[in-house]
């Protein structure tokens, strides 16, 4: 089956190697589910596990991650790249939003992927709803030296484009300033 190059970022190495060995095909359903959201982690045997669909909620509860949707003044998450930055929020929910990010904006997204790198490079800080310290946002932000908080669960719901916020990626907190 054909996979669009952009969709390859939603595949694990094991998906690709199994496909190349001729043992199975890669389903469009798998790719669609992972596009909606996924959780990757290392199990106790250090095997990479990738969950999508309904299994995401189970994994989030298994790792004791909380829903922060009731918080409105302050957003909390996991520090992925330390630092402090202030800037104007720019929410990026898809490739179409990338060109709206200006230098010094705070990039807020459900998660990031390689298509977002040009916008991430301009950002003063990055905040995501999903992800952990090995997520795309975390790795790229550390490479660029940009403060980053991941796994907030609610940043794209609470924050709005144009708001001034302070990202304290030493404490894992985002505060609405204006």
Would you spell out the secondary-structure blueprint of this structure?
Blueprint: H1 13-20, H2 28-36, E1 38-42, E2 48-52, H3 55-62, E3 74-76, E4 78-81, E5 84-91, E6 106-109, H4 117-122, E7 125-128, H5 136-144, E8 148-150, H6 155-158, E9 164-168, E10 173-176
Parallel strand pairs: 5-6, 6-7, 7-8
Antiparallel strand pairs: 1-2, 3-10, 4-8, 5-9, 9-10
Explain this structure to me?
The chain has six helices and ten strands, in the order H-H-E-E-H-E-E-E-E-H-E-H-E-H-E-E. The chain has 178 residues and is of the alpha/beta class. The strands form two sheets. It has an eight-stranded mixed β-sheet. A two-stranded antiparallel sheet has the order 1-2. Strand 1 and strand 2 form a beta hairpin.
In short:
The protein has 178 residues and is of the alpha/beta class.
In total, how many beta strands?
A: 10
Assess the beta-strand content as a share of residues. 25-35%
Relevant CATH superfamily of the largest domain: Phosphohistidine domain
Sequence of strands across the biggest β-sheet: 3-10-9-5-6-7-8-4
Biggest sheet layout: 8 strands, mixed
CATH architecture of the largest domain: 3-Layer(bba) Sandwich
How would you classify the helix and strand content by structural class? alpha/beta
The termini sit apart by 49 Å
Helix content: 10-25%
On the 0 to 100 scale, the average pLDDT is 86
CATH topology of the largest domain: Glucose Oxidase, domain 1
């Amino acid at each position: 089956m054909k996979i669009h190059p952009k969709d390859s970022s939603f595949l694990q190495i094991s998906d690709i190697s199994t496909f190349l060995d001729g043992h199975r095909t890669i389903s469009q359903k798998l790719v669609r589910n992972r596009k909606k959201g996924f959780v990757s982690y290392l199990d106790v045997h250090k095997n990479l596990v990738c969950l999508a669909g309904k299994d995401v909620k189970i994994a989030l509860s298994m790792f004791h991650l909380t829903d922060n949707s009731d918080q409105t003044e302050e957003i909390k998450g996991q520090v992925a790249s330390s630092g402090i930055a202030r800037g104007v929020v720019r929410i990026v929910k898809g490739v179409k939003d990338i060109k709206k990010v200006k230098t010094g904006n705070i990039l807020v997204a459900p998660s990031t992927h390689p298509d977002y790198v040009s916008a991430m490079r301009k950002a003063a800080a990055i905040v995501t709803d999903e992800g952990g310290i090995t997520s795309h946002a975390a790795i790229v932000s550390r490479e660029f030296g940009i403060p980053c908080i991941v796994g907030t669960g609610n940043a794209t719901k609470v924050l709005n484009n144009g708001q001034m916020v302070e990202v304290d990626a030493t404490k894992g907190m985002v505060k609405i300033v204006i």
